[in-house]
Design a protein that fits this description.
By secondary structure, the protein is mostly helical. The protein has 5 helices and no strands.
């Protein structure tokens, strides 16, 4: 019985220490941020597959939330680039413009989803998913590029 109590105490101590270490990581690395975004993207993509035409309003609302988050992250990335060297800014400008164009296209696809009919729903939803995936992939590549170019 004493041995079990020691094991329980040791287990609780290790779990507490792990929780403390994880909780103290207030500034995750870019790789950790990208991995988190990839996980969230996979979940969002899976969620998109599950919407029926009857759930169109919920789909549009969820996609709008994802788009808003992408735009906020893009603004943060843009601000980070603005505080870098002129060479990095010049190289980053076309990348940022391409991402903004992708976000604009995704916004247009979202408008099409709002106006979709039952007969066009599946193709419109698929186009939104494809646009969302492309935008997130582009954003992840840009974030990695910024991480490689700009010291943390």
């Amino acid at each position: 019985m004493l041995l079990t109590m020691k094991n329980n105490t040791l287990l609780i101590t290790l779990l507490s220490a792990a929780t403390f270490v994880i909780g103290c990581d207030k500034n995750p690395t870019t790789a950790q941020q990208i991995e988190t975004i990839k996980t969230e993207t996979k979940q969002a993509a899976q969620d998109m597959k599950d919407y029926t035409f009857a759930q169109k309003a919920e789909f549009v609302k969820a996609m709008q939330g994802q788009l808003d988050t992408l735009n906020q992250d893009l603004d943060k990335l843009s601000a980070k680039i603005e505080s870098s060297s002129a060479a990095v800014k010049a190289e980053a400008k076309p990348k940022l413009e391409a991402l903004r164009e992708q976000a604009t296209k995704l916004n247009q696809q979202l408008a099409e989803a709002r106006n979709a009919t039952e007969s066009t729903w599946d193709s419109v939803k698929a186009a939104c998913k494809k646009g969302y995936d492309a935008t997130v992939d582009g954003f992840n590549q840009a974030r990695q590029w910024v991480s490689d170019k700009i010291a943390p």
